[in-house]
């Protein structure tokens, strides 16, 4: 045990002490699709305007509108240059391409209740007996919590800097806007998402591998089933391979268009819990990329945000004048509300493996009950 802790610590200290790591093998992103697709018309928020109180008030209105319409929006002005972003994608890619199968096995997550380390391909049911072709590598924002494969070690300090950038320069400003939208004190949601707190807010690298024609047919081209995210806010670093779709309020799946060096932000279950339905978790899925990108692997970089583990997921209905005016939509009674830790554990254990039952009310929707709350899956 002591030796594992020692190994983790020395890996981390070494990565901070070491001279700047050499450039990782360059990942050159393929061109974006030219197909004519039904794209969602998402708002673009310039986060650099959040530095002044007046800017934040104006942006809060934009966030409330974006959440009420699509539940997804783009962020620009986030402070990373295109070169910094490209370097992170190169580090993400080497996590999959520069680590051999044997070494990957050592770093597969040990617990099915926490996403950490590698998730190998073919662990989730998609449809008709077909499983996913998705590999993950999940890194807690405190990167020294676990040991990492050899190829990643020179970049650990850089990955923690990246996590901090997402947390302090993207997540916190967004949480302040969401709080303003509820007429709450600006720091209300920030306090519930402390970088230093116990919890699983993490960087995730993700690579989707192309599938056989037969698998595409049997799953009706679905690569990742329609879902809402488990946490509060998801920060997706936009990348050019299409496939991400969101379910619009009119019931149509629409494509999310790539925007160079932008972030795609969406709300997860925890915002529904905390904000009483004003910021509903958005339903989305990933399907086979458009015709001009078929056969290409699809690399993703994310920051999945959760509340502190000990936060009880009860809406701010007493403090928020907005929720008092419009009424609160609850997922459960306050006394039954799970903590963040309970919710993420139960959702993570069940994800992609639990038995789903067809919804009585909605066609094509399957359901399961987690912590007393109905969770829906969309095909
Ligand atoms: O790969 C994507 O674009 C989205 C992935 C996603 O929705 C998820 O991992 O929760
Ligand atoms: Fe998602």
TrEMBL record:
It comes from the Eukaryota. Residues 199-307 form the Fe2OG dioxygenase domain. PROSITE patterns: FE2OG_OXY. SUPFAM superfamilies: Clavaminate synthase-like. Keywords: Iron, Metal-binding, Oxidoreductase. Pfam families: 2OG-FeII_Oxy (PF03171), DIOX_N (PF14226). GO terms for molecular function: metal ion binding; oxidoreductase activity. Gene3D superfamilies: B-lactam Antibiotic, Isopenicillin N Synthase, Chain. Belongs to the iron/ascorbate-dependent oxidoreductase family. This is Fe2OG dioxygenase domain-containing protein. It comes from Mycena metata.
